[in-house]
Amino acid sequence: MALKDFNMNTFKRYTNPQAIKDLDKFLDKLPGVVGVNTLILVAITWVLAGGAILFASIESGEAAELRAKLVEVESLRPPVPTISLVPLEKTSLEAYIDKIERIDLYPVLNFSATNGSLTISGSDSAFTAMTYAIGHIQGGGRNWHVDLDTMCIGAECTGGTMNVKLKMSTVRINESAPALDKG
What we know:
This protein has five helices and five strands; from the N terminus they run αααβαββαββ. With 183 residues, the chain is an alpha+beta fold. The protein is rod-shaped and about 115 Å long.
């Protein structure tokens, strides 16, 4: 509101001593005009509204303090990278199998590869070679992670051969998750 829009006559009329007497008369007649029960109801409504506003302001202040503490604690947390396992591609596994077969390291075993898995099979008498092959494969590639998926040895194997299926993956180290936004 600009100063030139201010009406001085209205201001004088509301600050006049007669205006205060008129307000006093109005308040004296109010219980008779609207009823005492209505005034009590309005008073209770105003008290409840004031209480709700007070409660909301206290809770929002506490929530803001809690948020500030959370941001402070999160800022003190060191960045921790995450580790994920990515299945090895069939071409990588086939190249490794070719390398093993070229040097004729395990002639009594058969190797086959699919995406993310390597199967080794052989006769039951080749158990020792199988254990050596598994150990060799575990240290075979850079960042390789080898899990035993299935293993069948002995009479329960179908076809009378032992076989091992290994899940092959590479370990990937991802960047750490960002800390909480401080805004």
